[in-house]
Write a structure and sequence with these properties.
The chain is 37% helix and 15% strand. With 280 residues, the chain is of the alpha/beta class. Bound molecules: zinc ion (2 copies).
């Protein structure tokens, strides 16, 4: 079963997310449970959390099809002690919100060394941040997203993600989200069949297929290896249509959320329908 959806808006409250997903024919969705560009956000009321759960149930969205995304401000590998503390507190709050909403995964960008500490030290710091959060919570998996490697963002190679996972004590509560734009921009040429196969082979060899917990489905404005994170609508960027046909006919991507983060939300319904039309 393929669960294709998009990162939907939550204007008016998180309970609107499943309704917004349903309106575009999505079988999965992503959302922010707090303002992604602010450090503080008011708590979700019990009433709103209940409405979210009811809307998910009534529209057929199980927790395994819902991939919440954390705030962009959080840097779990920050070289600055005060910022690291602030990030860990916000990350814990994100986990608690997921629990409150009955969700089982939280997708996040690993972190950045900001050219102030070694990449390895930063990766170990990220693993420690995950351990601290997992120790303080239950039921929610930490889903690490691969990055394009823009600036000092880590997690652009599978080796780096494997190093983070190696440092996590509870391996049953860590997963990986593969963003197709980031993967391509990081240098994996998944636009062609051989490159697509080679990418999954490396993923399985270094990380392990069982860690795959979700995907972000995006084309890329920039070329392979550009290290620039600029999403494009499906089939309109440097990756092109073939990748999405491969994904839709690949059992490795069954039963996980496949989430569009493409720039034109007015065509998401068409893009989702197009994805399903690629299934043979
Ligand atoms: Zn993404
Ligand atoms: Zn991106």
């Amino acid at each position: 079963m393929k669960y294709v959806g998009a990162h939907v808006a939550v204007a008016g409250g998180v309970s609107s997310a499943p309704l917004n997903a349903k309106a575009i024919g999505a079988k999965a969705f992503a959302l922010f449970t707090r303002n992604p560009s602010r450090w503080t956000s008011k708590p979700i009321s019990e009433k709103e959390a209940e409405a979210f759960k009811i809307n998910c149930r009534e529209n057929g969205y199980l927790p395994e099809c819902i991939l919440p995304h954390d705030s962009y401000l959080i840097n779990l590998g920050s070289p600055d002690e005060a910022k690291l503390k602030q990030s860990r507190e916000a990350f814990l709050d994100e986990f608690m919100r997921c629990s409150q909403l009955g969700l089982t995964m939280l997708n996040f960008h690993p972190g950045s060394h900001l050219n102030q500490i070694d990449p390895e030290a930063c990766l170990d710091r990220i693993a420690e941040s995950i351990n601290i959060t997992l120790d303080a919570t239950s039921g929610v998996k930490a889903v690490i997203e691969n990055t394009a490697g823009q600036g000092s963002n880590l997690g652009f190679s599978f080796d780096q993600i494997a190093r983070i996972i190696a440092g996590v004590n509870d391996k049953s509560r860590v997963g990986v989200c593969i963003d197709t734009c980031h993967t391509f921009a990081a240098g994996y040429d998944i636009a062609v069949d051989e490159g697509y196969e080679a990418m999954w082979e490396e993923f399985d060899r270094t990380i392990g297929q069982s860690y795959l917990s979700g995907m972000h489905i995006n084309d890329s404005k920039k070329g392979v290896g550009s290290h620039v994170d600029r999403h494009e609508s499906l089939g309109k960027g440097a990756i092109g249509a073939r990748l999405f046909e491969l994904i839709m006919n690949d059992p490795r991507t069954d039963n996980i959320p496949l989430i569009l983060e493409t720039p034109d939300d007015t065509i998401w319904a068409d893009e989702i329908a197009w994805m399903y039309s690629l299934q043979k």
